[in-house]
Every structure is written in C-alpha cells, then in structure tokens.
Design brief:
single chain, mainly alpha, two-stranded antiparallel ribbon, 73% helix, flat
Amino acid sequence: MRISSCAFLFLPGHSRGAGIWNPEPMLLAFFLKGIVVGVIIAVPVGPVGLMCVRRTIFDGKLAGFASGLGAATADAAFGVIAGFGLTIVSDWLIDYQQWLRGVGGCYLLYIGGFAFAAAPPRELESESDPESLLRDFFSTFVLTVTNPITVLAFLGIFAAIGLSGTQATFGRASILVLGVWVGSLIWWLMLCLGVGSVRHSIESRHLGWISRSSGAILFFSGAALLTTLIVNYLL
C-alpha cells in the first residue's frame, strides 16, 4: 500500500503562504472508522482478554488497564505497518509467524502454569505499583505481537474502508491508526471498569477457583497453540 503525499487545504481568502491549514473533512470519518476497527479487533475474548480480566480481579483496575493498554498499543503497531504500507516489516512478521506464535505459546504455558500452581490469594490486592504496571503492559504487548496474522486482518479492513490507492494519504493513515488505538483502548477501559466494579463483591472462597481456572485456561491455550504448530510442521 503506497502512502501518497498529504493534501493541504487552505481557508478561503488566505494564500498558501499564510500557512493556515483546513483539515480534510474526511479525516474525522477515518478517525471514527478507526475507532470502530479498534473495538472490533479488541473485542474477541482470548488469552489477552483473560489476562486483563484476571489482573483486574486480583491486582486492581490499573493493572487490568495497563494490560489492555499493552494490547491496544500492539494493535496500533500492526495498524501502522498495514496503514503505511511497511511491506518489509509485514513480510518479515508473516515469514516468522510460526516462531513468534511459538514464543507466545511458551509464554502462555509459563503464566498459566504459574497461576495454576500458585497459592490462591486470601484477599484482593490494592492497586499495583508502577513497576508491576509496566510489567503488565509489556507482557500483553509482547503476547499480542506474537500473533502477526493480525497485520493481514488490518490490510483487508483498511482496504475495505477506503484506505487504498490515492485515498491512502499520510494524514488519513495516521488518523485511522490513531482511531484504532483509541477504539481498542476504549474497549479495554470499559472491560476493566466493568470487572473492577464487581471485584470486591467476589467472595474469598471463590478466589482460588478463579485463580486456578484462569491459569488452566491460559496453560491449555498455550499447549493447544504449540500442538498446532508442531502438527503443522510435521505435516
């Protein structure tokens, strides 16, 4: 996808030399489309969503939101690659997708096994410290990046909503990607606020069940992913 030069429009009565820029009306439309795309990409519940919910329950809304922010930032990075036509990067990601997905599967095994084996907390923690929040952010960012097939989804969606050919200007691509990030972030914020609003109503006797069941799901998700990769390699 080629990014053409961005068109600048000037207000009537002003010369180009005046440097007064009138934003394209289409930019708002692309921003709103980006928000919708970001929500659609983020909504499907998977390992990242489960991690976000789990951390919101046990570590607080900030921990859950930091995890969602990591996933949203990774989605935006994929959007940049697709929107700006960075074919070298996208081709590299697709070529090494099996290795990247293998890393993601191993990480799921680790965090799932650790969560399942760990002693269930007797009470909920208060909000996490900054160091923990940074760790939460990077963990979901890396896990999301290990699924580079998302780039192909963005390429198809962006082409469908009009970001192709002469429409693929630098300004429109930038606004669209910003919308994707905002839309994804909106979803994670809503999820964390929703789960966080009921976390203190969870009885302590249920915390162990939630901890072990979520850990088991993450572990078996990683095992299933690795099994699929091995089978595909052998075939």
